[in-house]
């Protein structure tokens, strides 16, 4: 099941707060940040570990460390930037690959206006972050870019997913797991998620 609904009580509570129509930009940013932290824990729960011995105050002690591939975080501009600090707060050594995608309001197709990727993507785990999975056109385009660079472990973190987007993502990239803080009812006639959050980018950047 590529899309995994995260059911932690803190996630369910914070998503509810995020849906308030009268929410301020400040509150929306803060909750987006907190939810990004919680989703990061879920999406990294299976990272491989390795043993190491360190000098503890009481003498040598065996500890566990993260092992294996390095991580790149890929925010989908703009709205994905609202989740970036939350992810980097927990994975401070991750490197950041940026992709700018804007949905064409008439066609709902994503149009790429910026792409700056880190190197050696074939050796990295990628965490794509974007608050909204609506038609999934933007997410699929971002995954296409990562896979074209040889990335074989792609994971996605979203706040709200629509069933239409989930079906499209599963069809296009069945190997990619996506953690969602909420799975909503449907898309409206102009491609907005119902009940959803409204325009996440506008709420994070204050452009409405
Ligand atoms: C929003 C959102 C996703 C995309 C989701 O971005 O942040 O990137 O739409 O829609 P989709 O699943 O149908 O592709 P938008 O294009 O509005 O740009 P913004 O982040 O700059 O506001
Ligand atoms: N992008 C948003 O910001 N919100 C939606 O509901 C759909 C796409």
From TrEMBL:
5-phospho-alpha-D-ribose 1-diphosphate binds at residues 78, 103, 130-138, 199. Keywords: Allosteric enzyme, Glycosyltransferase, GTP-binding, Magnesium, Nucleotide-binding, Transferase. Its EC number is 2.4.2.9. Transmembrane segments: none annotated. Its cofactor is Mg(2+). Binds 1 Mg(2+) ion per subunit. The magnesium is bound as Mg-PRPP. Pathway: Pyrimidine metabolism; UMP biosynthesis via salvage pathway; UMP from uracil: step 1/1. Allosterically activated by GTP. Belongs to the UPRTase family. PANTHER family: ADENINE PHOSPHORIBOSYLTRANSFERASE, URACIL PHOSPHORIBOSYLTRANSFERASE, CHLOROPLASTIC. This is Uracil phosphoribosyltransferase. The gene is upp.
